[in-house]
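Hello K.,

You asked for the raw outputs rather than the summary table, so here they are, unedited. I folded two proteins back to back in the same session to keep the settings identical. This is the first:
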Amino acid sequence: MAFQSDTSFIPSPPPGEDELPYDDGEPMESQRHRKQMYLLIEVLELLWDDRDDVYVGGNMAIYFSELQAKKNDFRGPDVFVVLDTVRRERKSWVVWQEDGRTPDVVIELLSESTEKVDRTDKMRIYAKLLRVPEYYLFDPFTGILEAYALDLATMSYLPVAPGANGDVASPRLNLGLGVRRGTYNGLEADWLRWLDAEGRALPTGDELARAAGEQARAAGEQARAAEEQARAAGEQARAAEERASAAQDEAKLLAQRLAAYEARFGKLPGGESR
């Protein structure tokens, strides 16, 4: 009689990103919300283009427990950043597949339909379960930015006072966050921007392209100015040559006239011509 092993007692492995849903089917609140999300993600990806130890995601489901996965309980930050990880394509962020790594920074874009959840359920989960060190709330229409830091003693968020100009610091990313007026993808608005140490907005792809174009135009203008200076210098040199040549011609003519005069009338006493 052949022996058949019973494998029913072996627990099945938890589902991963390929098995779990990653799209809750709920679009972002408005066109401005979508563009704001893309702006924040795009700038960081450009800034860290040469790094492979960081991940920037947006509107992506984060799974932190198997029970949550079974309940299909989505937690999808509008923007999040994970440091000390592997940069690769992901369908969702599954904590148990990521060696327990959770986001270092989360940004939620407030709207009438999501603000309550962002300030209660999500805030509690990010603090107590995911232990996200930095949490930011931004309303794309009012331009109000709020910053929170995780208090490890209470596992809750404490508000961070902004600077005099309303900017806040992100210690985890060594960057700043602030509201700047500008145009992104054809829409002029007050955008939440990543800032450098001097408070300047880190550039988007379009801004980099425009800056490169302006530099190219400036370089072209400098080259044309140099060419004009070279042409002017050449014209001055030619004019000097012409004056020198004319002086030489005049000297030759005077010498010829003097020679003819001396041949006819001789020289004055002392060798001077009459």
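The second followed immediately with the same parameters:
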Amino acid sequence: MRVRAFALAFTALTVIAAAPAAAQAQAASPAAKTAYKAPRTPFGQPDFQGIWTNKTITNLTRDPKLGTRNVLTPAEAEALERATREQVARADAPTPPETSVTDLKNANCGPDGISGFNCGYNQGWKDPGSSVIELYGEKRASIITSPANGQFPPRKAGVQRAANRAMPARTDNPEGFSLGERCLLSFGSSSGPPMLPLMYNNTYNIVQTPDEIVIQVEMVHDVRHIRLNSKHLPPSIKQWMGDSIGWWEGDTLVVETTNFRPEQGLRGGNINQKVTERFTRIGPNKIAYQFKLEDDGYEAPIVGEVAFNRENGMIYEYACHEGNYGLENMLAGARAEEKSGRKVASNASDADGEQ
């Protein structure tokens, strides 16, 4: 949905006059980004505790039309946000009473992505937000800040993705489906690391102790444990969400994660993967979240930034498999296709739910 909304809005931007050359250039990262002083916990740490959300309509990768420019003009940002509001209003409109399950007008999920009849999710299930990322007074065009073009770097020749090595054909057995489809781990990279927004369930609860920081992830009720001032486990011990250790650099929490399981990784990453995250509270209601992903399969690291904004309320239980007949039905359908002589798709799943 976000990709489609971004594309529609950017088409509308062609009627906007070009911004001055100075505004078109990529803004340099501020050296002294904020003078805000985070409150302290009773044991002296910067206090990040509470409920936060990273929901945004800013895509992980950048519209190629923007090139190396990652700061939107006010007019561009407003056009994107207005297009999203209009899309949500269309999707929230009542379904015509004459519409039936055989109505094919939305068979391709319509002009607004996965919403409407015959599609996986209607608007009532989605909550991707309606604003682009705002950090340090800048409206961001993509989460990825490096490479400079906001795209994934090229893959190294001959390096196969870990997901393809670790998973069988998609419908051979339950293990062929993605971790999110099997309710083992959040869809996409919601739990991370890196922790990235999806089309819904973008809420996190941070709890701190003197020796550990725990992040409860709304999606698939994942829980990240970050051990402070510790050492990594032996490389032979692979864990969901990897092995995270953290330390403080001033008011910034730095987290380094290694030892990922081969089934997990951003867009089917590789086995030797390391993610370094930096959490900095830059206001009473905002955390600047930066990540650097180093992956043996890419020719360069991937760097990005996301805003975590204070959220009112609480996280409710995410119940995944209760009453979920999806896997059983998909496997049964594949066996029926085999019996009929039809070729069954054999590629591993990339159902990651990202922007």
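The longest strand covers residues 273-283.

Happy to rerun anything if the numbers look odd on your end.

Regards,
P.
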